[in-house]
Amino acid sequence: MSCPTIMAILIDNRRETATKVQEILTKYGCIIRVRLGLHETEACSDEGLIILQLCAPEVQVQQLKDELNSLGRVKAEVIKLALDD
């Protein structure tokens, strides 16, 4: 199965929102092929970025996006990649 869907999740106020984001990502864990989390460690930044590669029908991707975006201080966006034939 091709997995051309990338989701970027920007999280602000990580200390408050990380647990809720993690619960949602665990719920959709079977469709997450790759997960990369980035944040500043020197100052233990309160903002973070998560990059996901998703293997799922568009309906499930949209459900995940909607659940994440329902949280305050969280923004999820989807990028679909495809090669031109």
Word description of this protein:
With 85 residues, this protein is an alpha+beta fold. The chain has one domain (5-80): ACT-like. Chain A, domain 2 (Alpha-Beta Plaits). 31% of the residues lie in helices and 34% in strands. The protein has 2 helices and 4 strands, in the order βαββαβ. It has helices at residues 14-27, 58-69, and strands at 5-11, 32-39, 48-54, 74-80. A 4-stranded antiparallel β-sheet has the order 2-3-1-4, with helices on one face. β2 (32-39) and β3 (48-54) form a beta hairpin.
Helix content: 25-40%
How many individual helices? Answer: 2
Provide the gyration radius in Å: 13 Å
CATH third-tier fold name: Alpha-Beta Plaits
User: Which sheet architecture does the biggest sheet show?
Assistant: 4 strands, antiparallel
Stretches where pLDDT is under 50 for at least 5 consecutive residues are: none
What's the mean pLDDT score? 91
Strand content is 25-35%
Q: How widely separated are the two ends?
A: 18 Å
The CATH architecture term is 2-Layer Sandwich
Q: Please tell me the total number of domains.
A: 1
The order of strands across the largest sheet is: 2-3-1-4
Q: How many strand elements?
A: 4
Shape: globular
Quickly name the level 1 CATH class.
Alpha Beta
- What string gives the helices and strands in order? EHEEHE
Class based on secondary structure composition and strand pairing: alpha+beta
**CATH superfamily membership:** ACT-like. Chain A, domain 2
Protein name: Iron-only hydrogenase system regulator
InterPro entries: Acetolactate_synth/TF_NikR_C, ACT-like_dom_sf
Organism: Moorella mulderi DSM 14980
